[in-house]
Design goal:
InterPro entries: Aldolase_TIM (IPR013785), Alpga-gal_N_sf (IPR038417), Alpha-glycosidase_related (IPR050985), GH (IPR017853), Glyco_hydro_27/36_CS (IPR000111), Glyco_hydro_36 (IPR002252), Glyco_hydro_36_C (IPR031705), Glyco_hydro_36_N (IPR031704)
Number of strands: 38
Shape: globular
Largest sheet: 10 strands, antiparallel
EC number: 3.2.1.22
GO molecular function: alpha-galactosidase activity
Number of helices: 13
Distance between the termini: 44 Å
Active site: 478 (nucleophile), 548 (proton donor)
Number of domains: 3
Radius of gyration: 27 Å
Strand content: 25-35%
Binding site for substrate: 199, 366-367, 443, 476-480, 526, 548
């Protein structure tokens, strides 16, 4: 059994893979956290923490000064009745007070994993893959019930958590804070890792020791954002890539989030994660409920790589969905950096002809094909083909591309509207705004109000008409503006602070409908590159444009950091022109290719302007990637050298049966008279011999324990890529 309850000790024990998660009921129904870590047979709660009379820690039972919620490790804590740490939830009553008291009422254990209504979440294909525990806590005075939802996966060290609020009383309740999870660790002797960044340098790894007080990663931008990612990890001091304990927390949500760790006066650490309480409330009328999104918690005793591999496999096979979940992704070329807005049908077809000759499989038409969209100052929302540029429409262009042996894909940005557009002139209240205030613009556009059902219905039908008009097999779904003036003309005053979350629920409804109507289309999400690279998006769209920054050297850190949580099959990675359009750097076509081939491979450049030598090299890259892409997209990924720690980066992909592997090595800057160096590989069979093309035959044990000597190369921005195949002795 993955989940058990002992009525004598009042203890819940969740067994997930090779990990245990233990809770226990104390006193009159307080739910305490006892243990989370490597699998154990049993844990006695009374042995896990000592009860002491702590000064300035009040007591809910005045007769026992050794019991305080301020020192009890809890599962879903409140504020106001002796716990001074950050609460998991907060509710305001009609009398204005915010004190609540949740106690255990009942629980149930069952096989499988339920869907979360209107929200993305991990899933099971067979009920035997997981067991779910629901613990119902109640406040008898006000009729509030909170159901804590836990699912323990059988195969992985994974526990998912969420919470559902139900108002079973007679008065209105207002949620001020509704996080998805909280865990109290008995010590704060950890480092914390998060993934900060900015546009063009997303998901850089930052690691530092926990300190007293609150450390947090959060977004208030209306999206998970370039600046932060909805992921944090607690890491043992001695943990590195391949050994030591790691606790990962990943939020399956695409909007405003909070992920924080509070270290208290007793050096314990409280981790909490969920919808950001900033500018959030939710009104619960009697009989209404509210569902929080899911947090995916991963335990690893094999370092960061162990945690990452768990997230990769889970998110690739039990979060991503649809026909493309397990299918090899096509090699594409996007016209954006080749033409920007300046194109016509003839120009596009000429580009496509050259691409087809080089073996590229998918041509993607980016921004500028609709309305009067000759620049980024107009026409978003007017999803009608520009016949001046495309006289034969999307269908005519797509058929010409198909005749060349290529598939046809399209860029859209359905969440935005230009003030200079027919849609805005007809429906000025369809954007996010507040009364009597100016409407801030970003990239000359406003955000459509997806909290409105009529807006969502319009987008579903309008974009469906576009996608049904031509043989389209790929869609890049972009979003290039964060939210300001967050309000909705369709909501009453007391619900205005629900707008941002209602937007996400509307967006998820639109995406669910679109991907269901067009299951043959590969959808890729994008937000100015990686501004919404999160698990919520992966549930609907199995890959994401990793960053608008296509510079190969910049991408070393971006792709390395992204791999901490997200599978390689989710990462779009393309070769672009030099000097690079974002940073001006000149890297060789070889290096640009090796970096891009470490994800879902493609190109963003005007291929007609390349030399014959460059075209032949691209042809070779395309052929090589076709041969190794299943290994790259679905193999087991190992990080070998971190670009955040030195002048080099390296990673590798290993097949499930360990019969083949692909290794990529990169050095950023040249060094005079540099020492010899060796690269130790991972994940191979130590008893198997492997042939490395151009280097000879090595034992798997030699490659992993002694390493392979790195050939000397001069120059900056150099790379090497080796393919390994098992050979018979």
């Amino acid at each position: 059994m993955a989940v058990t309850y002992n009525p004598q000790t009042k203890q819940f024990h969740l067994r997930a893979g090779k990990a245990s998660y233990v809770m226990q009921l104390f006193r009159s129904g307080y739910l305490a956290h006892i243990y989370w870590g490597k699998a154990v047979r049993d844990v006695r709660g009374e042995r896990r923490f000592s009860r002491l009379d702590r000064a300035f820690s009040p007591n809910p039972d005045p007769s026992d000064r050794t019991f305080s919620l301020d020192t009890l490790p809890q599962e879903y804590p409140a504020y106001g009745n002796t716990d001074f740490r950050a609460p998991a939830y907060q509710v305001q009553l009609e009398n204005g007070s915010t004190v609540t008291d949740l106690r255990y009422k009942t629980h149930r254990i069952y096989k499988g994993k339920p869907r979360l209504n209107g929200l993305p979440a991990t899933y099971v294909e067979h009920e035997q893959e997981a067991e779910t525990l629901e613990i119902v806590l109640g406040d008898a005075l006000i009729g509030l019930e909170v159901t804590l939802q836990y699912t323990a996966y059988e195969k992985w060290n994974v526990i998912t958590r969420a919470a559902r609020f139900e108002n079973k009383g007679g008065e209105r309740l207002k949620l001020l804070r509704a996080l998805s999870m909280s865990v109290d660790f008995p010590t704060a002797d950890y480092d914390w890792i998060h993934l900060p960044g900015a546009w063009g340098r997303e998901r850089w790894i930052e690691r530092r020791p926990l300190v007293t007080g609150v450390q947090a990663a959060e977004s208030r931008r209306g999206a998970s954002s370039h600046q932060q990612n909805p992921f944090i990890a607690l890491v043992a001091k001695n943990a590195d890539e391949h050994q030591g304990e790691v606790y990962g927390f990943s939020f399956v949500y695409s909007g405003n989030f909070l992920a924080q760790v509070e270290v208290d006066q007793f050096h314990t650490a409280r981790v909490s994660m969920g919808i950001n309480p900033f500018d959030f409330t939710w009104l619960l009328q009697p009989g209404e409920s509210f569902q929080t999104p899911e947090v995916v918690m991963v335990y690893s005793d094999q370092g960061l790589n162990g945690m990452s591999q768990t997230y990769h496999e889970l998110y690739r096979t039990r979060l991503a969905r649809g026909a493309f979940r397990d299918r090899e992704r096509p090699i594409l070329i996007n016209n954006w950096e080749a033409t920007y807005f300046d194109f016509n049908e003839e120009k596009l077809v000429n580009i496509a002809k050259t691409e087809a000759e080089l073996g590229i499989e998918l041509f993607v038409l980016d921004d500028g094909w609709f309305g009067k969209r000759d620049d980024d100052r107009r026409s978003l929302g007017d999803w009608i083909v520009n016949r001046r540029k495309l006289p034969n429409g999307l269908d005519g262009l797509a058929k010409q591309v198909n005749e060349l042996g290529m598939q046809f894909g399209l860029w859209v940005e359905p969440e935005m509207v230009s003030p200079n557009s027919e849609l805005y002139r007809k429906h000025p209240d369809w954007c996010l705004h507040v009364p009597n205030r100016p409407r801030s613009e970003g990239r000359n556009q406003l955000v459509l109000d997806y909290s409105r059902e009529d807006v969502c219905d319009y987008i579903i039908e309008t974009i469906s008409n576009v996608l049904a008009s031509a043989p389209i097999t790929y869609v890049k779904w972009d979003m290039n503006r964060h939210m300001t003036e967050i309000g909705s003309s369709a909501l009453p005053p007391e619900r205005q602070r629900e707008t941002a979350h209602r937007y996400m629920l509307g967006l998820y409804r639109v995406m669910d409908e679109m991907t269901s109507r067009f299951p043959h289309i590969l959808f890729e999400s994008c937000s100015g590159g990686g501004g919404r690279f999160d698990p919520g998006m992966l549930y609907y769209m199995p890959q994401t444009w990793t960053s608008d920054n296509t510079d190969a050297v910049s991408r070393l850190k971006i792709q390395y950091g992204t791999s901490l949580v997200y599978p390689i099959s989710a990462m779009g990675a393309h070769v672009s022109a030099v000097p690079n359009h974002q940073v001006g750097r000149v890297a060789s076509l070889k290096t640009r290719g090796h970096v891009a081939m470490s994800g879902n491979f493609g190109y963003e450049l005007d291929i007609t302007k390349l030399t014959e030598t460059e075209k032949q090299m691209i042809k070779q890259q395309v052929a090589f990637y076709k041969d190794v892409r299943r290994l790259v997209q679905f193999g087991t990924f190992y990080r070998l050298l971190s670009p955040f720690e030195g002048n080099e980066a390296a990673w590798m992909f290993v097949s499930a049966d360990r019969s083949e592997a692909l290794v990529a090595y990169f050095r950023v800057l040249a060094e005079a008279n540099a020492p010899l160096s060796y690269l130790r590989l991972k994940g191979l069979d130590p008893n198997q011999d492997y042939e490395i093309e151009g280097l000879g035959v090595y034992g798997g044990d030699e490659l992993m324990y002694a390493g392979v000597a790195l050939p000397y190369r001069s120059g900056d921005f150099i790379s090497m890529m080796w393919r390994l195949k098992a050979v018979q002795r």
